[in-house]
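Dock pantoyl adenylate; give full complex structure.
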Amino acid sequence: MTAPVLASTRAELADLLAPARRSGEQIAFVPTMGALHAGHASLMATARARTTGPVVVSIFVNPTQFAPGEDLDRYPRTLADDLLICEKEGVDIVFAPAVEEVYPGGAGAGPLDDSVTIDPGQLGRVLEGVSRPTHFAGVLTVVAKLFGLIRPDLAVFGQKDYQQLALIRRMVSDLCLGVEVIGAETVREPDGLALSSRNRFLDAEQRLQALALHDTLQAARQAAPWGLEVAMDSARAELRSAHGVDLDYLVITGPDLGPPPEAGEARVLIAARVGTTRLIDNLPVTLGTSVGKASTGTSGGDLTDK
Ligand code: PAJ
């Protein structure tokens, strides 16, 4: 496997992409903030499988999506290891620019400065947007810039950050950006914990406590055939037995993060703090109308017998 070529400036990136543009090859793009793990690797594998043209990975810890007091400064930076993972997944180009390269006019501190930015609209103000009101403006603005620099045919994002994925789909559609957005499944540890670069901040006890997120989602999923209320009751019961988990939100929504359907495909999402580390996770659920659905208040325990 040949090592990817590293570009750190816009000009280097443009030079590296020129041959593919000339020959009309499909360019696939995976944006990341580095500290790469098997979840990121799976996105690269998806991108690799989709094109014979170049696969580009960006590694850029984007300051504008962190509010003051969030973990920008302690965000792990592991470029040497990241490059090995990219090489293993057959990535052709790694774009790892400095902040000034992406934000020549300055990136401001948290809220964006006076440059033109992307407003995520109502979808950016719910769920994650409640506790992180400037987050998605920063995410969408940097992704739009990276799309402009790379001009990919397709881009791969993880379902792990489900609201981010939904917003990127909306941005591409509402702003007619012409990029095919692919949502890849969440990669998990064998016990269910979703891989995240933030997991490294968990000590051994918190690592066990963090399992409550996935267990809660699973409880909702298993009870979903009995309808929304039973699924939520079951999830809440699971959460009550958890320790050290400070819940931010637990919701069931439609697949587009709108209101959930009476029955059919939906999404259960959770955000919680374990120690000082904020974790998020989500799963698809199928809300059903099984017999007994009207018996709200049924505990999760009863359901397992049905
Ligand atoms: P980052 O957190 O590095 O994630 C990069 C991509 O990896 C995202 O699309 C994310 O959803 C995906 N990912 C993370 N953990 C995953 C897992 N366990 N399984 C599958 N995919 C996973 O998300 C960002 O960076 C930034 O907001 C970014 C889009 C790069 C903009 O700065």
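Observed: Strands lie at 5-7, 28-32, 55-59, 93-95, 154-158, 180-184, 245-253, 264-274, 277-287.
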